Amino acid sequence: MLTRIAMLALFTVSTLLPGALAAAPGDAAPIFATKARQVYMVEAKSGTVLLANNENQAFPPASLAKLMTMDLVFSALKNGEITPETTYKVSENAWRKGGAPSGTTTMFAALNSVIRVDDLVRGVVIQNGNDACMILAEGMAGSDALFASRLSDRARDLGMSRSVFGNSTGLPDAESHTTARDMVTLARHIHTTYPDYYGLYAQPDFTWNKIFQRNKNPLLGLNMGIDGLGAGFAEGAGFAAVASVERNGTRLFLALGGLASDKERSEEARRILEWGLSAFENRIVFKDGEAVGQASVYGGAQGRVDLVAAGPIELYVPTDNLERLSARIVYRWPLRAPVAVGQDVGVLKVYSGERLLREVPLHAAAAVATGSLVSQATDALLEMMFFWL
Asked: Is 38-259 in the same CATH topology as 4-27+288-388?
């Protein structure tokens, strides 16, 4: 592992002309070979990206759409829009398309019966019930189509910019698509925002109306600490899953897709997660309040300002250190005075070889007042020279 001094020597500052974008490294081959067509895995505490391949490539969400459905339901429960005791009636549409007559995964809700939200939530999370999804959607929004529109809006609000949901269930729909990155974003949000409900994803079984069903998530049976979230299958796109595992205080989130079979999905999920848990370690590279670097200030009483993060910068890095850690500070140039304490200035981009591990926002550690007319004129001349170059 790099020593403290050697690691700090790798951190450099890059400035950008106004309007320019940071130069990103080229697409690198994944450092861990997997059969998954799409894969994305991060460590929860630091947000370090451990594995990424085709993470922005779209695929049908299939039953993974139910994670989005439950986020909307959990949110409504949390803000009081509905309660666990709220009841919804089972429509013929929900019964026929998602219930016993459908031949799909179902909680076997009886036609025209009235069911509590608390039971419907378990019917979705544990039993993967399509009928439970439709009953919630119709009850909350009036129709599955209107509910799906809310799902897509909610996805955008969460930063899932590449996801669209055409229904609440994930049943075949030409409009629906998501990505591995977006699914990890959603999984992290559910785990962090709804701790009172997240535990349902690991509940082994649920009995509804005297019908006993085991949890439909096949990854729970791997017995390696996975405690959520779900799996799906779509014709032409293969088998997919979103998983979270916690071991010895380390939590990983994984999304993978494009697998050839249920067995291959489970095998790949196990291999990837075991690698993520065993081949890395947490390392604090900058303490809370420690200057990460400096940015040049133009027209200021001082020519430079220290940049710091909102807290300690922690990375989940390879234990064998086969790849060199490096980083750079990127900010919009020129940074003009006055600069306020805490002003957002740029971002620290940390790489392991060619692979981007993490981006950390940086802000000014001190205020920089506007300088004298002479210093402003000098800096203006330097700026003009840079533009000509």
From this structure: no
Q: What is the per-residue pLDDT across 89-110, written as a single tens digit (0 to 9) for each?
A: 999 999 999 999 999 999 999 9
Q: Say whether pLDDT at 228 is over 80.
A: yes
The identity of residue 240, as a single letter, is: A
What is the pLDDT, as a whole number, of residue 346? 92
- For 5-18, letters b (16+ CB in 10 Å) and e give eebeeebebebeee
Report whether 68 contacts 165 (CB < 8 A): yes
Give buried/exposed letters for 205-218 (b at 16+ CB in 10 A, else e): ebebeeeebebebb
User: What are the φ and ψ backbone dihedral angles of 59, each rounded to 5 degrees?
Assistant: -150, 160
- Segment 130-145, tens digit of pLDDT: 999 999 999 999 999 9
Top CATH class of 4-27+288-388 equals mainly beta
In CATH, the architecture of 38-259 is 3-Layer(aba) Sandwich (3.40)
Residues 248/48/27/333 CA torsion (nearest 10 deg): -170
Q: Which helix (H) or strand (E) holds 358?
A: strand 355-364
Structure tokens at 209: 């109306």
Closest CA to 180 of 274, 58, 70: 58
Domain ranges, ordered by start, for the chain: 4-27+288-388, 38-259
The tally of CA atoms less than 13 A away on the side-chain side of residue 270 is 13
Contact 240, 269 (CB under 8 A): no
